[in-house]
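A quick aside before the break. I want you to see a complete sequence-to-structure record at least once, exactly as it would be stored in a machine-readable document. Don't worry about memorizing anything.
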Amino acid sequence: MTREIKKPMFFAGLSRVKNESDIIEAFVRHNAALLDQLIIVDNDSCDGTAAILRSLEQEGLPLIVLTDETFGYFQSEIMTYLARATLAATGIDRLFLLDADEFLVARSRDDLEKQLATIPYETHALLPCKTYVPTPEDVLTQANPVARMTRRLTREHRQFYKVALSRSFLYAPYAVITQGNHNVESEEPDTSTFRLPGVPLAHFPIRSIEQMQRKALVGWSAYMVAGVEERGGYQWRALFERLTCGRAWSKADFYEFAAGYPEGPIPPQDVELVDEPLPADYAMRYLELANADPLFAAAATIESLSRHLAAAHAGTDPA
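That is the input. The structure line, written in tokens, reads:
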């Protein structure tokens, strides 16, 4: 009697990131412990994200770093292309589409595989997000936001999911990744998704006033350039408009926006939180490479936009 040899599963993460220097090292170290490979496309970051990624790659972590100088938030189109190209070039069984502020929650790699095995292999998994928020009780001297922010919403304001693709995406030419990596859409009836509550994502969208202002300045500008305001980004639009009013941001503003994200400011006392720390037992080695100054990010964005505008007028490549 011959014994069937089970092929090891190959899990990888795919991310497109921009200006995430405060959290990108934690993202890589955490998710690399659960996945076989991380493929990160740096979208012309100006805050030290690229330098941190290069350092992590040189360290020997299972990381592939690519670059993308596209200006504008064409996330759906680009992630659809990248996901299909990645699956075509590799033997990946499950491709997790992750943002830099999202962390897989699983006790171990074996546990992650067991959870994925509960749904059909050819279907796409939808992973529920759990939103962590900053509070006045956080120890601000802790530079790693994952270790600093230990409280999450007991109940999400709106439940979002992120996609873990199966290889079937490669054979569905009309399927697309929706804006924000929240789902797969297709006119083909055989494209199916399963919600997988056993594999949530710890989500750290709001981490500091500087990071929030940087997102408002750069994030909403990217939406406007792409002309995709109707697809999302309303939370960054609200922050951008707040900046243009010239009103100073207080700590109270920061905590209210974080407590209500992404719907809008909510007094922190009106939300229920649960203390559920995410393990962060790794050393942060490249914190000195980060530049959190939102004005620096704004200046770099203006320069990049000006170069693209000038190139469009001249009919040349902005590089």
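Two observations worth writing down. The first helix runs from residue 24 to 32. Residues 1-5 have pLDDT under 50 and may be disordered. We'll return to this after the break.
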